[in-house]
Design a protein that fits this description.
Strands 3-2-1-4-5-8 form a 6-stranded parallel β-sheet, sandwiched between helices. The protein folds into 2 domains: 193 residues, Rossmann fold; 115 residues, Rossmann fold (3-Layer(aba) Sandwich), CATH 3.40.50.720. The chain has 318 residues and is α/β, with parallel strands linked by helices. It is built from 12 helices and 16 strands. Helix 2 links the parallel strand 2 and strand 3. The protein binds (3R)-3-hydroxy-L-norvaline (VAH).
Length: 318
Amino acid sequence: MKNVLVIGSTGQIGSELTMKLRNMYDGSIVAGYIPGAEPKGELLESGPAEVVNVLDGKQIAEVVKKYRIDTIYNLAALLSAVAERKPLMAWDIGLNGLLNVLEVARENNCAVFTPSSIGSFGPSTPHDNTPQDTIQRPTSMYGVTKVATELLSDYYFHKFGVDTRSVRFPGLISYTTLPGGGTTDYAVEIYYAAVKGEEFVCPIAKGTFMDMMYMPDALKAAVDIMEADPSRLVHRNSFNIASMSFAPEHVYAEICKTYPDFKMRYEVDPVRQAIADSWPDKMDDSCARKEWGWTPHYGLAGMSADMIKNLKIKLGVE
Ligand code: VAH
């Protein structure tokens, strides 16, 4: 019986990951949330939900004990652009929160997944085929928290034997829950504009490549790594995973195949552009493929078709 706590269960990843885990496992899959971000609809009705503030270690421990949790997905974080506006809060949630989770995991023998990101790399990292093991000198607070997340999670594995694992997510694209203030959010917002028949104002400059991934592949990675045979893992925190790399003009051109009159113009946001420029263009994910069989399913064309099909339903547009 697998009992899982998802901290941040109503966010872009958590809202879909919680439902996927509930469809996979027959144990308690607990939706952890904070007041003001309550689970709704199927997420609320399909399983247990508890207030879990990552900054309250006692609260995390109470829920872990109540449901005999064996795995914690710690998805609590401020995304990159918001983190630049609130750097101290980003550090607090990202690292003091993580420390609470790791201490509870150490005391209760839980495995822990805390995502890292392409944001953990910086301007001095090789941008093309970014290696699994390479220099990580990020220049954003989000990136600083993600590098520290990787180091602290590895420390708890080597020092205390806590089963910590994670992946470096690309920009994630989905139609279910809007992202919450990231640099890659444009790649979600462009689809909404297209389906609504609106012009899209792109905050990221033409020619800015970033790793991107469709949410179903991201969820598959988050589950597969936690189910992987630990004896095969050379790395733990955190694996490069990649599926596609594109710049705004590429996703625009793909959407235009369905909406030939769709218009886009650029109004570059200097904060997000500076962050995007510091990130890789495309990661090398050979270690994830070798150590736990990572393989993505979606490319740009398949993702675009699925996004448009589902957004038309969600937005009630013919
Ligand atoms: C962000 N979507 O833009 C997140 C993610 C790799 C990007 O970390 O901040």
